[in-house]
Write a structure and sequence with these properties.
Distance between the termini: 56 Å
Radius of gyration: 20 Å
Low-confidence stretches: 1-29
Length: 293
């Protein structure tokens, strides 16, 4: 006999496939263009009516990796921030040496400062924020970002709803090297060579030794995939910004889509292949320029 929850899931998928946003629906000529990264907060593999199924989630946590999907991300007020809720997605309790969280800023919101010695990078996913540093103000819109070195005075404010992803880690200094703040956007970064690979790569931070991590923006067209099945000492925190595909982590294979977050511990086997009809784009944290000793 067909399990009742499975029956509900099948019926829900059929309803979704036949609906306006379903994968069997025809595009409407009258539909308005969607904003960049809109699917981060509007996932299609987990439609709203399926989230109410008892126990339903695609999230997985293991000792060497985690998949945190939108239906299981838990928001609460962020400490030291005003009118802002956050969902911590990667933290040292998992074994990481960095923190990754989503922050939803409301009207009249304002950030707090990270702890002493902690650096921060923010990337705007929806809306816009104002970054103030030493009396200078920068308007950051979707696809813009800012790197703030440790102990660098700054504030992030918004007078309307906005969503950002934030990375923080305790800075690992090298003698006589000091990282500088960076304010920029993805489209201002050049495409880089990827020997043996076909995906497109941009790096958001300078590659100089002063910086102990970088953020990569990686683009895959449908059907493209990583040629190298990677196993390395670096840690990763990943947010899928657009598209969908298959991610291998260890011996497990996961269907992933925009809005999904992945943590990868050192030396976990990893591989990605892009599916669907549109490009996949993900944002990837990677520690760099430091010895693992």
């Amino acid at each position: 006999m067909l399990n009742f929850s499975l029956l509900l899931l099948v019926l829900g998928l059929f309803e979704y496939a036949s609906g306006e946003e379903g994968f069997c629906s025809a595009p409407s000529s009258e539909s308005k263009p969607k904003p960049l990264y809109w699917k981060v907060d509007n996932p299609t593999l987990s439609p709203i009516h399926l989230q109410d199924l008892p126990g339903f989630t695609r999230s997985v946590y293991k000792s060497d990796h985690a998949l945190i999907t939108p239906e299981s991300q838990v928001y609460s007020p962020l400490p030291d921030w005003i009118n802002t809720s956050g969902a911590y997605l990667v933290t040292p309790e998992m074994g990481s040496h960095f923190v990754m969280f989503l922050a939803k800023l409301k009207e009249n919101s304002r950030s707090g400062l990270p702890p002493h010695g902690v650096e921060r990078l923010i990337f705007v996913l929806q809306g816009g924020v104002t970054l103030t540093t030493a009396g200078n103000s920068h308007i950051l819109k979707v696809d813009s970002y800012a790197y703030l070195p440790p102990n660098f005075e700054h504030s992030i404010e918004s007078d309307s709803p906005a969503t950002i992803v934030v990375f923080e880690r305790r800075y690992a200094p090298l003698q006589n090297l000091v990282p500088e703040p960076v304010v920029s956007s993805t489209d201002r970064q050049p495409l880089l060579e990827t020997p043996g690979e076909i995906f497109e790569l941009r790096k958001l931070l300078p590659t100089s030794l002063a910086y102990d991590f970088n953020i990569h923006i990686m683009d895959f067209q449908p059907g493209e995939y990583l040629n190298v099945k990677e196993v390395h000492y670096n840690q990763h925190g990943l947010l899928l910004l657009e598209g969908q595909g298959i991610y291998r982590l260890g011996d497990s294979w996961y269907s992933v889509q925009a809005g999904d977050v992945i943590w990868m511990a050192p030396f976990v086997p990893q591989w990605y292949g892009a599916l669907g009809k549109t490009r996949s784009r993900y944002l990837l944290y990677k520690d760099v320029n430091r010895s693992p000793l």
